[in-house]
Specification:
This protein has 404 residues and is mainly alpha-helical. The chain has helices at 3-37, 42-56, 62-70, 87-113, 120-136, 152-182, 188-228, 240-256, 259-268, 274-294, 300-313, 322-353, 355-377, 391-403. The termini are far apart.
Length: 404
């Protein structure tokens, strides 16, 4: 088998594995509030979300093209491939992509283990930035500095990451306050019942938006790998089989249910009522769909989590667990640099070994690390049957257990 083709296959398989982890890590963004309020039963919620993720993945390719062209700087000023970029038939660039994917997957699994809703998008970009900088230097990353429009990592990743949580909190907070003002005087039983139905609609819209935004990130990665291997040359489109494979992978990941993160968002941050849930999901869907249209690879986790927090701030008497929120914010801050470190280290190891052997070693290490994380998670499982258990009760039980 041709060495470049073997490495390409490893990259595609690893990219689809990342897409799968993205699915189960981010299911909570769409369905945590609906599950927490009882609007949808857990298994029905993840099934509905999976179907809509699958559909959403086919609606646009703008985010995919951003990932292909705006992270690793594969072209020089004349539009030709950068010197050394396609060395050895593209193996060099393929190794950069593979190492970046490993950084993203490892961070996704670690944060899932601790139930932290961190950004799969920033984990992926961090991994790519780390491997790209080690391989090509600082100039190997398309930072977007000096560009007349929003582009590159700063314009398409960093700025949206800073602005989107603040906007989500504000929109959800105002929406929650407005909902309670409009429905003031309506019996709680009738209000809760009506908003549960509304939640099903808004949660479905978030799932559709998630597929439209997040599945495309993996499409962009695979397209970049195909370009590196000489199997694709059009930087303005994505092969249909890539779109289909990524759509299926993220849908399967979503269906598997990221119960640990669902529990944190649904029970750990704010005790959600149906009106709050509808307001949070509406704000999330609006921002994510807007980002997809503009080609911004937004962190759906940041948007959804901030919307839930905003819904708590917008309701009089609601309690926001700031300790949990603080752990989330810390995870957000270290996601990109942590994934970058893993991506950089992985590239160094693979490049030192060289060729297809280096790529196989990287892949084998990823499999071992993934197995260890999953095994550790199985000791304290979170599943559809206990995802809605009282947060305070379980926290107290865990504390008592650790002290005994």
């Amino acid at each position: 088998m041709d060495v470049t083709f073997l490495v390409l296959v490893l990259v595609v398989v690893t990219a689809l594995a990342f897409d799968f982890t993205n699915g189960f890590h981010d299911t909570a963004n769409a369905m945590a509030t609906s599950i927490a309020t009882g609007a949808l039963k857990p298994k029905i919620a993840v099934t509905l979300s999976a179907v809509l993720n699958l559909i959403g993945a086919f609606l646009s390719v703008q985010v995919a093209l951003t990932v292909t062209n705006d992270v690793i700087d594969i072209q020089d000023a004349s539009g030709a491939p950068r010197a050394g970029m396609l060395a050895d038939g593209g193996e060099f660039l393929l190794l950069i992509v593979l190492a970046g994917l490993v950084g993203g997957i490892v961070w996704n699994l670690l944060t899932w283990l601790f139930g932290l809703p961190s950004s799969s998008s920033h984990a992926l970009f961090g991994g790519l930035i780390g491997s790209g900088m080690v391989a090509l230097g600082v100039d190997g990353v398309n930072w977007g500095l000096g560009e007349p429009r929003l582009s590159g990592v700063i314009g398409k990743v960093i700025l949206p990451a800073l602005l989107s949580p603040a906007i989500a909190i504000l929109v959800a907070m105002c929406g929650t306050w407005l909902i309670y003002r409009i429905t003031d005087g309506i019996g709680e039983r009738f209000r809760a019942s009506g908003f549960r139905w509304g939640q099903i609609g808004t949660a479905s819209l978030v799932s559709l938006a998630h597929g439209t935004n997040d599945a495309q990130k993996t499409m962009g990665i695979i397209t970049l790998a195909l370009i590196a291997a000489g199997e694709w040359s059009d930087t303005a489109s994505v092969p249909f089989w890539v779109r289909a494979a990524c759509a299926i992978a993220i849908a399967l990941g979503t269906y598997s249910g990221g119960w640990r993160v669902i529990r944190t968002l649904g029970k750990g941050l704010v005790e959600i009522s149906p009106p709050q849930g509808m307001a949070a999901e509406s704000a999330s869907a609006a921002l994510i769909l807007t980002g997809s249209h503009l080609g911004f690879p937004l962190s759906t986790t940041h948007v959804a989590t901030s919307s839930i927090m905003g819904s708590g701030l917008g309701m009089r008497g609601a309690q926001v667990r700031w300790g949990v929120a603080g752990r989330m914010f810390l995870a957000w801050l270290i996601t990109l640099p942590s994934a970058a470190c893993v991506g950089a280290l992985t590239f160094v190891i693979g490049h030192a070994i060289g060729g297809s052997t280096g790529a196989l070693v990287i892949f084998a290490v990823l499999v071992v690390v993934s197995g260890l994380v999953v095994h550790h998670a199985s000791k304290k499982p979170v599943h559809a049957g206990n995802v809605n258990d009282s947060w305070d009760g379980q926290e107290a039980a865990a504390s008592a257990s650790s002290n005994s």
